C-alpha cells in the first residue's frame, strides 16, 4: 500500500516557500498513524490542548447539525488564532454530499463555502468583499477530524490557510475500509510550495477521539462512537431513540 510504504513521516511540517522544515520520523516499517498520534508540538505557540479542543469543536458540528452518529462523520472547524492563542470560531462544516447531492461537499469544502458566505454576508459580522474574504483565509486555521483527501488538501492550499490540523490519518481511514485517493496531505503541501501562502500542518491531533468516529462503518463488530448505539438487528450506529 502506497501510503504505508512511504518512508517519510512528519508529525509537523513547516513549509515556507520551497523550504521544508520539520521533524522527519519513521521508517517504512512504522505505520504513519503511530508516528503521528498525539503530537505534543506547539506550532505558532498554540498549545496542544487548545488544538485538541478545536478538533472536538469540529466533531461537535455533527451533533449540532442533528447528525451525532452520521455515517460519513467528516467535520471541520475554521478558526482565527491570529487574534488570540485560544482562537475564535469563524465557521464549521460537515460532509454534505448526500444532503446536497454535491460530490465535492466534503466537510472541508462545506466549511470553506460556509466561511465565505459568513465573511461576505452584508448583514453579518464581517461584511467583506470577495477579495477581502479571499485574503482573510491567510489568518485562519482549518481543523478537520480526518486528514483531507487530495481534493480538499488542494482546496486548503488554494485558500491559503495559515494552518491545517487533522485528527485521523488517511492511512487509518484506509485500514478501516474507507475508499480513499491514496495521496497524503503532506505530499499536497510539499508539491504546492509555488503557492504564495505557506501552511503549517499538524496531524494525529485528538485521534483517540476521532478514530472511533470512522471505525464502525465497515466492521459490524466495532463499537459505536460515544453516544451512539447499534440497533439490536444490527446495521449502522444511530443515536439512541429517546
Ligand atoms: C483574525 O484576527 C485578526 C487579528 O485580530 C484580524 O485582523 C482578522 O480580521 C481576523 N479575521 C477573521 C476572519 O476573523
Ligand atoms: C456554518 O457555520 C456556523 C458557525 O459555526 C454553523 O452554525 C452553521 O451550522 C454552519 N452552516 C453550515 C451550512 O454548515
Ligand atoms: C463525504 O461523504 C461521502 C459520501 O457519504 C464519502 O464518500 C466521503 O468519503 C466523505 N468525505 C469527506 C471528507 O467528507
Ligand atoms: C457592508 O459594506 C458595504 C461596503 O463594502 C457597505 O456599503 C454596507 O453598508 C455594509 N453593510 C452593513 C450592514 O454595514
Automatic annotation (TrEMBL):
> Which molecular function GO terms apply here?
tRNA-specific adenosine-34 deaminase activity
The protein in question is named: CMP/dCMP-type deaminase domain-containing protein
Any one Pfam family here would be: dCMP_cyt_deam_1
Q: Taxonomic lineage of this organism?
A: Eukaryota, Fungi, Dikarya, Basidiomycota, Agaricomycotina
Among SUPFAM superfamilies, the record links this protein to: Cytidine deaminase-like
Q: Which UniProt keywords apply?
A: Signal
Query: Which intervals hold domain CMP/dCMP-type deaminase?
Result: 49-181
Swiss-Prot/TrEMBL GO biological process terms: tRNA wobble adenosine to inosine editing
Name the source's superkingdom: Eukaryota
According to the UniProt entry, where is the signal peptide?
1-22
Amino acid at each position: 500500500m502506497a501510503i504505508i510504504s512511504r518512508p517519510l513521516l512528519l508529525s509537523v511540517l513547516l513549509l515556507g516557500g520551497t523550504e521544508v522544515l520539520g521533524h522527519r520520523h519513521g521508517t517504512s516499517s512504522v505505520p504513519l498513524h503511530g508516528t503521528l498520534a498525539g503530537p505534543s508540538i506547539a506550532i505558532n505557540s498554540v498549545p496542544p490542548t487548545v488544538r485538541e479542543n478545536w478538533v472536538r469543536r469540529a466533531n461537535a458540528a455533527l451533533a449540532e447539525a442533528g447528525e451525532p452518529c452520521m455515517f460519513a462523520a467528516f467535520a471541520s472547524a475554521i478558526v482565527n488564532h491570529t487574534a488570540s492563542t485560544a482562537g475564535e470560531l469563524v465557521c464549521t462544516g460537515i460532509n454534505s454530499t448526500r444532503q446536497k447531492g454535491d460530490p465535492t461537499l466534503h466537510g472541508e469544502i462545506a466549511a470553506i463555502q460556509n466561511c465565505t458566505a459568513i465573511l461576505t454576508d452584508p448583514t453579518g459580522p464581517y461584511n467583506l468583499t470577495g477579495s477581502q474574504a479571499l485574503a482573510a483565509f491567510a489568518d485562519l486555521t482549518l481543523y478537520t477530524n480526518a486528514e483531507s483527501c487530495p481534493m480538499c488538501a488542494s482546496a486548503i492550499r488554494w485558500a491559503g490557510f495559515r494552518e491545517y490540523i487533522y485528527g485521523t490519518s488517511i492511512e487509518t481511514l484506509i485500514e478501516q475500509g474507507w475508499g480513499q485517493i491514496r495521496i497524503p496531505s503532506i505530499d499536497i503541501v510539499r508539491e504546492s510550495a509555488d503557492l504564495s501562502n505557506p501552511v503549517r500542518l499538524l496531524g494525529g491531533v485528538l485521534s483517540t477521539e476521532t478514530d472511533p468516529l470512522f471505525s464502525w462503518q465497515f466492521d459490524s463488530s466495532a463499537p459505536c462512537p460515544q453516544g451512539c448505539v447499534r440497533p439490536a438487528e444490527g446495521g449502522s450506529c444511530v443515536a439512541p431513540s429517546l
